[in-house]
């Protein structure tokens, strides 16, 4: 009996240590806010004034237009800026939205390449970047986003070949890469 108690105590101590570590390395809603403010600062044109005034530091991030927070963790779970007409680039900070499940930037004028940091979006299931001006290759790290179900990069300027890593994505249902400048077998 005593032995069992000791084992249990040792187990608790280990769990607590793990939790403390996690708390130190984990990101929180404040990090989500800085990530979105970084995105805002990378937007050079907002013709319909969708986010320039709405994404105000005086209102909670979960109330910002296009932002939906999860009920359980109160972290940013969806970011939908589709049809806002924005011009800009994606900053590496976006990879800090560690609870993001759904990312939709459809019909904007985002350009540039996709930062490597997006590989950290482990919970991502849906990504729609259709009708933008993204360039560069479709990064091979897409193959490590294991929960990805649907992704559309339709109507961009991605070039190069389709990374074979994406064939490893077992949850993938729909992939739409039409109207890019991709080469190789497709
Ligand atoms: C978020 O984490 C930082 C440290 O990484 C901490 O200073 C801050 O108080 C935390 N904010 C919230 C809302 O938990
Ligand atoms: C931002 O937009 C949301 C959703 O349209 C709205 O509920 C909120 O009141 C707006 N906030 C500000 C500060 O304009
Ligand atoms: C994303 O936003 C657009 C424009 O506001 C809206 O039409 C669309 O239904 C939204 N999609 C989702 C999944 O919320
Ligand atoms: C968020 O991301 C940026 C760039 O990837 C990084 O410099 C920063 O330290 C990250 N963490 C926090 C807590 O903002
Ligand atoms: C989306 O973008 C495409 C290509 O620029 C354009 O043809 C289409 O009309 C746009 N759709 C909407 C609803 O803005
Ligand atoms: C695909 O997954 C298998 C098993 O998890 C791994 O061995 C392989 O390296 C992966 N291939 C690619 C191209 O990522």
Automatic annotation (TrEMBL):
Residues 31-69 form the Leucine-rich repeat-containing N-terminal plant-type domain. The keyword Nucleotide-binding applies. It comes from the Eukaryota. Its main location: membrane. One of its GO terms (cellular component) is membrane. Keywords: ATP-binding, Glycoprotein, Kinase, Leucine-rich repeat, Membrane, Nucleotide-binding, Receptor, Repeat, Serine/threonine-protein kinase, Signal, Transferase, Transmembrane, Transmembrane helix. Its EC number is 2.7.11.1. It is an enzyme of class 2 (transferase). Residues 1-22 form the signal peptide. GO terms for molecular function: ATP binding; protein serine/threonine kinase activity. It is a single-pass type I membrane protein. It holds the Pfam family LRR_8. It is found in: Membrane. This is Putative non-specific serine/threonine protein kinase. It comes from Rosa chinensis.
